[in-house]
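Exercise 7b. Backbone tokens:
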């Protein structure tokens, strides 16, 4: 365990991240790395579900991705995903959730580079101590 002072990007939920990782930079780096590796594929699955117009499949895909946002400090996107998931339970018409889907996609696209940059910073912090 590598407990070092680390200040997360202010665009992330720093307070949540600090409480979750408690200064364990190696653990944070591992989780951020998993997110960077997995999230693009999960978003692709969400896109495909939306394109197929299958609301229940879309709901299931959003449910899979939803918790990963919080693990990298994207708690606002977690809330977006929760709203989309709930709305999917209330409709069978894909057009009813188009705006929520687009909001999730846009928030993801804007935040992904921030998470990638934080992963680099976390790795640099670890390497400085080796």
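Sequence design result:
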């Amino acid at each position: 365990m590598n407990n070092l002072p680390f200040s997360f990007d202010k665009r992330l939920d720093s307070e949540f991240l600090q409480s979750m990782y408690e200064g364990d930079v190696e653990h944070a780096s591992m989780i951020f790395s998993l997110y960077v590796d997995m999230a693009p594929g999960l978003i692709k699955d969400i896109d495909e579900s939306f394109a197929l117009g299958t609301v229940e499949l879309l709901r299931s895909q959003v449910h899979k991705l939803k918790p990963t946002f919080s693990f990298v400090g994207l708690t606002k996107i977690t809330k977006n995903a929760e709203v989309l998931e709930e709305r999917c339970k209330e409709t069978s018409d894909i057009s009813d959730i188009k705006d929520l889907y687009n909001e999730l996609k846009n928030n993801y696209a804007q935040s992904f580079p921030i998470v990638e940059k934080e992963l680099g910073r976390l790795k640099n912090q670890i390497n400085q101590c080796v």
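Instructor comment: The domain at 23-124 is CATH 1.20.120 (Four Helix Bundle (Hemerythrin (Met), subunit A)). The first helix runs from residue 14 to 21.
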